[in-house]
């Protein structure tokens, strides 16, 4: 098998960046129940990050650990998808981003469960249980809000229109990917068509795709700001313990 | 949107197989399915349960506190209703 480091960074950075984004709702979500549910999702993702980046650090073998990778790399070293670094905007937009990522994430983890690398297979198996719930929850919310009031429908459609150009990157593959993500597209389309159709939302017909997140070639301007906030504490107080 | 638009649900959690469901609290949700999902997130974060029941609070019939005299006081002096006059063999275990 080829060196899995790049792939592990991709998996870990996806869950790190989305986990941080989702955690930004903590204390300010529209209702208490959603606030707790979002915090749980964020914590699941950060927990997965510890596993992926922990394994990446072992694999890199340069004396760094998961924390060093999360808090002491700069924006050009991140390998996450452009989708997950997009800002939260409104609640509908956040849930649409979550749904599109969860749909992809669940398929990727299901494929990784049969990886020849037993560490990767174990992380995938543990994570998939969490992500199955994330997908159930985000699908329900997308349907409820898409097929809800005029205002909620408008916001969900706006979220889908804005985020759709970031979907294509999830299925671009290269030599660093341990699985053929392109092959997962039909299953993704089936799943998302079904939910978005029930939600009375229309998938944009333009298939233009932003790319450059997972290769690190070109992140959007949002990632640097997010990382500045996320990394401030451990950089300003390197020995902080809590 | 505020949770005022959503009905209140009473949540019951079974802590382990063999135990009964116990009332743990209440929450707001638009329907029964979301009530169970919200209960999962609000009340089982620390592995508290293996089963969740949700029931709309408005569906619960409750006794009135004012009736407590007639409902409960008569039981005060009926000590013979307690099964404390039997010797229970140790082998029976917890009852």
Layout of secondary structure:
The complex is a heterodimer of chains A (242) and B (95).
Chain A: H1 5-23, H2 32-60, H3 66-71, H4 82-85, H5 91-112, H6 118-146, H7 150-163, H8 185-198, H9 221-236
Chain B: E1 8-14, E2 21-28, H1 32-43, E3 51-56, H2 68-72
List keywords for this structure.
heterodimer; A: 242 residues; mainly alpha; Ferritin; B: alpha+beta; Ubiquitin-like (UB roll); 2 helices; 18% helix
Description of the structure:
- The complex is a heterodimer of chains A (242) and B (95).
- Chain A is mostly helical and 242 residues long.
- Chain A has one domain (5-236): Up-down Bundle (Ferritin).
- Chain A contains nine helices and no strands.
- Chain A has helices at 5-23, 32-60, 66-71, 82-85, 91-112, 118-146, 150-163, 185-198, 221-236.
- Helices cover 18% and strands 22% of the residues of chain B.
- Chain B contains two helices and three strands, in the order E-E-H-E-H.
- The relative contact order of chain B is 0.18.
- Chain B has a three-stranded antiparallel beta sheet with strand order 2-1-3, with helices on one face.
- The A-B interface holds A 30-33, 36-37, 40, 133, 136-137, 140, 144 and B 1-3, 6, 27-30, 33-34, 37-38, 40-42, 45.
What is the β-strand count of chain A?
Answer: 0
Q: What is the fold-level CATH name, i.e. the topology of chain A?
A: Ferritin
Q: By CATH's scheme, which homologous superfamily of chain A applies? A: Ferritin, core subunit, four-helix bundle
Rounded mean pLDDT score of chain A: 96
- What is the CATH class name of chain A? Mainly Alpha
Number of strands of chain B: 3
Q: Write down the CATH class of chain B.
A: Alpha Beta
CATH architecture label name of chain B = Roll
Which series of helices and strands of chain A comes N to C? Answer: HHHHHHHHH
From the N-terminal CA to the C-terminal CA of chain A, the straight-line distance is 39 Å
Question: According to CATH, what is the topology of chain B?
Answer: Ubiquitin-like (UB roll)
């Amino acid at each position: 098998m080829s060196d899995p480091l790049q792939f592990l960074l991709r998996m870990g950075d996806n869950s790190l960046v989305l986990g941080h984004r989702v955690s930004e709702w903590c204390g300010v979500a529209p209702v208490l129940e959603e606030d707790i549910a979002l915090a749980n999702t964020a914590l699941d993702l950060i927990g997965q990050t510890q596993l992926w980046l922990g394994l990446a650090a072992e694999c890199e073998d340069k004396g760094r650990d998961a924390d060093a990778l999360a808090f002491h790399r700069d924006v050009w070293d991140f390998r996450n998808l452009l989708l997950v670094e997009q800002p939260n905007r409104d609640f509908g937009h956040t849930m649409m981003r979550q749904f599109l990522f969860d749909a992809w994430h669940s398929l990727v983890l299901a494929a990784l469960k049969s990886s020849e690398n037993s560490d990767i297979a174990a992380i995938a198996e543990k994570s998939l249980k969490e992500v199955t719930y994330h997908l159930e929850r985000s699908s329900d919310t997308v349907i409820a809000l898409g097929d809800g009031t005029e205002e909620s429908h408008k916001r969900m459609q706006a979220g889908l229109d804005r985020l759709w150009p970031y979907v294509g990157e999830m299925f671009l593959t290269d030599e660093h990917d341990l699985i053929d993500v392109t092959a997962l597209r039909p299953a993704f389309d089936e799943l998302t068509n079904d939910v978005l159709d029930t939600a009375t939302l229309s998938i944009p017909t333009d298939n233009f795709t932003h790319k450059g997140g997972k290769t690190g070639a070109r992140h959007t301007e949002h990632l640097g700001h997010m990382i500045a906030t996320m990394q401030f504490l451990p950089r300003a107080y390197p020995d902080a313990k809590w | 949107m505020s949770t005022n638009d959503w009905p209140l649900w009473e949540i019951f959690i079974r802590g382990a197989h063999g135990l009964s469901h116990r009332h743990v609290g209440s929450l707001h949700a638009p329907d029964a399915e979301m009530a169970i999902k919200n209960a999962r997130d609000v009340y089982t974060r620390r592995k508290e349960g293996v089963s969740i029941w949700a029931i709309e609070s408005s569906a619960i019939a409750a006794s009135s506190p004012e009736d407590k005299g007639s409902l409960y006081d008569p039981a005060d002096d009926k000590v013979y209703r307690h099964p404390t006059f039997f010797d229970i063999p140790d082998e029976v275990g917890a009852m």
